[in-house]
Write a structure and sequence with these properties.
Chain lengths: 108, 115
């Protein structure tokens, strides 16, 4: 089964609304990263997390290693937030494993 | 500017053909990775390396070889390409793990079509 499971697989939001994406891990993740793949296909770093919480503008992410999950909260969604969001877990030996992604579409 | 450069950008080959995908990073990073991206699967790790001459097996290694010739260069080899290997391939690099922020950097991808 999936070692890094993301939910939901797809999401539609209206501009200005809030939402949360989630990753559940069936592996022992030591760190978590979140990426955005924009409509042009480029992968952009959003967060790198040890257990804890980080915030950057309208984005906030939490990594709970004891309960094996991470969340990405998007506040006041904008059109440019559209794309596919990936979480990735680092396990022992510097192996980084990705989830299948959440496709987000923000509409006016 | 630090970067990860992949070549070629696009490649078409026939079944049974021999293909080499190249990745060069100028980040002075130790770790390099090859992923394939397919609809419904996200990015799946093929091979990775933590230095010149080192190779680690990822989650979907079958049909792929890789070689890290220098700290900068990481190659992915398909010696008998099959249509199931049609995909978008990404290379990435990262540096020390003792950091506050991620320095994980992706290339722009290579789109491979095996006919």
């Amino acid at each position: 089964g999936d070692k890094v499971k993301q939910s939901p697989s797809a999401l539609s939001l209206q501009e200005g609304t809030n939402s949360a994406l989630r990753c559940n891990f069936s592996i022992a993740a030591t760190t978590v990263q979140w990426f955005l793949q924009n409509p042009r296909g480029s992968l952009i770093n959003l967060f790198y997390l040890v257990p804890g919480t980080k915030e950057n503008g309208r984005l906030k992410s939490t990594f709970n290693s004891k309960e094996s999950y991470s969340t990405l909260h998007i506040r006041d969604a904008q059109l440019e937030d559209s794309g596919t969001y990936f979480c990735a877990a680092e396990t022992g030996g510097y192996k980084v494993v990705f989830g299948s992604g959440t496709r987000l579409l923000v509409s006016p | 500017e630090a970067a990860v450069t992949q070549s070629p950008r696009n490649k078409v080959t026939v079944t049974g053909g021999n293909v080499t995908l190249s990745c060069r990073q100028t980040n002075s990073h130790n770790y390099m990775y090859w992923y394939r991206q397919d609809t419904g699967h996200g990015l799946r790790l093929i091979h990775y390396s933590y230095g010149a001459g080192n190779l680690q097996i990822g989650d979907v290694p079958d049909g792929y070889k890789a070689t890290r010739t220098t700290q900068e260069d990481f190659f992915l080899l398909l010696e008998l390409a099959s249509p199931s290997q049609t995909s978008l391939y990404f290379c990435a690099s990262s540096g020390s793990r003792d950091r506050e922020n991620s320095d994980y950097t992706f290339g722009s991808g290579t789109r491979l079509l095996v006919i």
